[in-house]
């Protein structure tokens, strides 16, 4: 049963991976022999399949080892900081390299006349993945660019109030501070103490700051410091009740946990595709609700700043279209695994390592691990070590790469597996934490 499901699944992945490696508009342009090399790489996959329940694959380590082999992970260093930025599956890396080589044959021709033709199909596919309209989605380079476009593009005036929170990402906090400094807007900061607050307490903390004179509410959907998922929709509903608009920072939630962007209550939204989607480094998405596009200035000027066309946010000048087009292969990879299975596996991995260490008297999981409150990203603290000391021990003694968090009221080492991490890898982490705690 299980092996049949596995074969079905991997065949699906092989098929999905193989079809869009070169968009049809490019096939006439290239003579690269990529198909044969992929057939070889994926040769272990049996052609027979009879269907089945893919969710049963969550615990199938053989399957996930094969997914691991579709990446190019370091065999020595165990990378448990996938929250920072994620590696790309080999099909994404090779697509990027192929497109990049092609561009270098005649850059202005292949970039602007050939690869650029792929932007509209890509927009449609990204919008489908995001549960939004293609007319509301633009391709940018990262969350910082997406959200700073919004923060600096909003028509706010001196004295206008904006609600932010103590756990927002520094780039966003700094952008708001710069607007406050430059334009005299007033920031009202919600103080969150996580994971100690319930959803009701979080919503109430926002409610206290969302007074009738507030114009914008900035919501970080999944807090990068400790993995906590905020009740974005409930906070957004409060904002909308008083006529304020919402910005949602989806850097850590997109392609990690499943949702449609409009369901978060977001008027404006930004994310990076080089995190959980595993697209090339330097790829992101901006979403603006259709009727708000005309009122938002682009960060980099376009011919008509008041245009209601989402494409005005893509006036970014010369950049790598190879990077942008290879987002398509990352979408294929996401679909081949399936967002539901991916999320379930990430929950499973979190539960696996946190359950193994959580009862140790000197080890503390400082994230609410319930599936509604967090997914893959969690922080851990061991008595006797500062987060920096613990992170450094994990690296020097065990070659486990993590990131140490000492920010606002959040302390711990952040552990972020991705789908190419298997239980064997987490056993190395579990042993390291136990040995260090017992030392
Ligand atoms: C919550 C949050 N917002 C924004 C960003 C910025 O992302 P990028 O560096 O891809 O622009 C990050 C990066 O980790 C983040 O965690």
Question: What does it look like?
Answer:
It is a single chain. This protein has 439 residues and is α/β, with parallel strands linked by helices. It folds into 2 domains: 216 residues, Aspartate Aminotransferase, domain 2, CATH 3.40.640.10; 98 residues, Aspartate Aminotransferase, domain 1 (Alpha-Beta Complex). The strands form 3 sheets. A 7-stranded mixed sheet has the order 2-8-7-6-5-3-4, with helices on both faces. Strands 9-10-13-12 form a 4-stranded antiparallel sheet. Strands 1-11 form a two-stranded parallel sheet. Helices cover 41% and strands 13% of the residues. Helix 5 crosses helix 6, helix 8 runs parallel beside helix 9 and helix 14 runs parallel beside helix 16. The structure holds pyridoxal-5'-phosphate. The site of pyridoxal-5'-phosphate has 11 residues, from helix 8.
What is the mean pLDDT? 90
Name of the CATH superfamily of the largest domain: Type I PLP-dependent aspartate aminotransferase-like (Major domain)
Please state the second-level CATH architecture of the largest domain: 3-Layer(aba) Sandwich
Beta-strand content estimate:
5-15%
Number of helical stretches of at least 4 residues: 16
Domain module tally: 2
Low-pLDDT stretches are 14-52
Just give the CATH class of the largest domain.
Answer: Alpha Beta
What kind of sheet is the major sheet?
A: 7 strands, mixed
Give the radius of gyration.
Answer: 22 Å
Instruction: Encode the helix/strand succession as letters.
Output: HHHHEHHHEHEHEHEHEEEHHHEEHEEEH
Distance between the termini: 44 Å
Shape: globular
Identify every distinct bound molecule in the structure, by name, code or SMILES: pyridoxal-5'-phosphate
**Number of DSSP E strands:** 13
What is the fold named in CATH at topology level of the largest domain?
A: Aspartate Aminotransferase, domain 2
Query: What's the arrangement of strands in the largest beta sheet?
Result: 2-8-7-6-5-3-4
Class by alpha and beta content: alpha/beta
Helix content: 40-55%
């Amino acid at each position: 049963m299980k092996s049949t499901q596995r074969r079905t699944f991997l065949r699906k992945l092989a098929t999905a991976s193989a079809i869009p490696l070169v968009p049809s508009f490019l096939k006439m342009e290239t003579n690269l022999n990529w198909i044969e090399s992929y057939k070889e790489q994926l040769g272990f996959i049996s052609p027979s399949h009879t269907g089945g329940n893919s969710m049963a694959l969550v615990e199938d380590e053989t399957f996930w080892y094969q997914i691991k082999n579709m990446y190019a992970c370091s065999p020595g260093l165990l990378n448990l900081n996938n929250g920072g930025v994620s590696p790309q599956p080999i099909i994404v890396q090779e697509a990027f390299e192929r497109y990049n080589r092609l561009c270098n044959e005649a850059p202005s021709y292949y970039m602007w006349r050939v690869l650029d033709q792929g932007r509209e199909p890509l927009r449609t596919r990204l919008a489908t993945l995001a549960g939004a309209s293609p007319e509301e989605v633009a391709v940018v380079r990262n969350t910082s660019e997406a959200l700073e476009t919004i923060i600096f593009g909003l028509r706010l005036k001196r004295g206008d109030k904006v609600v932010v929170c103590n756990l927002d990402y520094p780039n966003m906090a700094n952008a708001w501070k710069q607007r406050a400094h430059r334009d005299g807007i007033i920031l009202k900061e919600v103080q969150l103490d996580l994971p100690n607050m319930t959803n009701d307490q979080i919503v109430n903390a926002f409610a206290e700051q969302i007074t009738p004179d507030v114009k914008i509410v900035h919501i970080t959907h999944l807090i990068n410091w400790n993995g906590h998922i905020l009740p974005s929709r409930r906070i957004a509903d409060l904002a909308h009740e008083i006529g304020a608009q919402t910005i949602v920072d989806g850097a850590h939630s997109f392609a990690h946990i499943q949702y449609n962007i409009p369901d978060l209550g977001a008027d404006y939204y930004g994310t990076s595709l080089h995190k959980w989607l595993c697209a090339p480094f330097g790829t992101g998405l901006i979403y603006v609700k259709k009727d708000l596009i005309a009122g938002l200035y682009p960060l980099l000027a376009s011919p008509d700043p008041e245009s209601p066309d989402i494409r005005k946010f893509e006036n970014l000048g010369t950049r790598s279209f190879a990077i942008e087009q290879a987002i398509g292969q990352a979408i294929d990879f996401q679909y081949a695994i399936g967002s539901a299975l991916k999320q379930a596996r990430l929950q499973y991995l979190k539960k696996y390592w946190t359950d193994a260490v959580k009862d140790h008297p000197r080890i503390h999981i400082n994230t609410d691990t319930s599936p509604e409150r967090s997914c893959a990203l969690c922080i851990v603290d061991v008595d006797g070590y500062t987060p920096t000391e613990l992170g450094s021990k994990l690296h020097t003694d065990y070659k486990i790469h993590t990131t140490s968090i000492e920010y606002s009221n959040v302390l711990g080492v952040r552990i972020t597996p991705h789908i190419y991490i298997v239980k064997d890898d987490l056993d190395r982490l579990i042993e390291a934490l136990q040995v260090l705690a017992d030392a």
